[in-house]
Fold:
Amino acid sequence: MPKIVLEHVSKRFQKFTAVEDLNMVIEDREFIILLGPSGCGKTTTLRMIAGLETPTEGRITIGDTVVFDSEKQINLSPSKRDIGFLFQNYALWPHMTVHQNIAFGLENLKWPKPQIEARVKEMLQMLKIEEFDKRYPSELSGGQQQRVAIARTLAPRPKVLFMDEPLSNLDAKLRLEMRIELKRLHTDTDSTFVYVTHDQLEAMTLSSRICLIKNGILQQFDPPMETYSNPANLFVADFVGNPSMNFIPAKLVSADGAKATVEFFGRRFAFEAARPIGEIGAEAVVGVRPEFVRLEEGEGQAKIYGTLPAGMETTVKLDVDGFILTSVKFGNVDYKLNSDMNFSIEGDGIILFDKQTGKNVGRGRVTPL
Ligand SMILES: Nc1ncnc2c1ncn2[C@@H]1O[C@H](COP(=O)(O)OP(=O)(O)OP(=O)(O)O)[C@@H](O)[C@H]1O
Ligand SMILES: [Mg+2]
Structure:
């Protein structure tokens, strides 16, 4: 079973550390997304697992095989790692038809002819490109080319499939369609997918777990909803979710076990967490997802700063004594600018962060005192 294990993997380019002490276990058949801002080390990580980049230190195991070990000087070539690639620039061979493009890799692997034909047919069906069988890449749209590239990559049944921003060249609508196709493909194949993107929505919707990286350092490795509703720190909280989380500056008045008293918006609140609160200094940040700001009721008083109706939901910006608080409301609403609005902070998904370390120290509810 192709479980992938990274142990203390680092990559330095001269003095610059691109990936630092990365530890990660990718289970068989997972759909992992490496997510993070540009330059954080996503491609480097993917290339190290694939064998296209040599780590400076560490150990990588795919299935039962150690493919890299800096101490034992093991370093298997990509061709010995039983993997497939799909990179951003999915160059198809221009002088080959769609059929030939998909068959080419199998011919190289010396598959028997009837098996090649059967597999190509299967891939054409799976990716819904049967009608383009005899066309050349130049006679296809970008999205169709992309599907051919995916078919070509999946044809040899790689146990692990690496994809580096494979949808970045597509327009928004096609990207959405291809996301669904990829998710279906993942279910239809027995492969483990490792996928790079800097698009948080893509990560949220596709993955079984998100590996969120900042400056080469792993921030959180959890299922999307956990990353969303219980972010490990301010960076993760800010990176995941759109519109993003409200970060309300707060003062810690007291903390005892799972309870704390915090002060923000000029008043005191009780914070009750599900578990004992972690180490926290005098300065705190209260993290509130926009959907937890309830409008038209509650003790909070604000003025309407602006509304962004998007059809299905409306983003409402409130001015709370100079702090802009974001809320979302289902449906179409259009409040008058500068009008008075009451609000409350609802639910038990409120996050308390320590400002100094940025760490999530507790998740719970706030009630005005
Ligand atoms: N061959 C190299 N020599 C020196 N520095 C490199 C080399 N390859 C990558 N880097 C640096 O390592 C860091 C990580 O690069 P990487 O390509 O992994 O980023 P990324 O997360 O994939 O970014 P993007 O989203 O922009 O593709 C970057 O700061 C990059 O400049
Ligand atoms: Mg990259």
About this structure: The first strand starts at residue 4 and ends at 13.
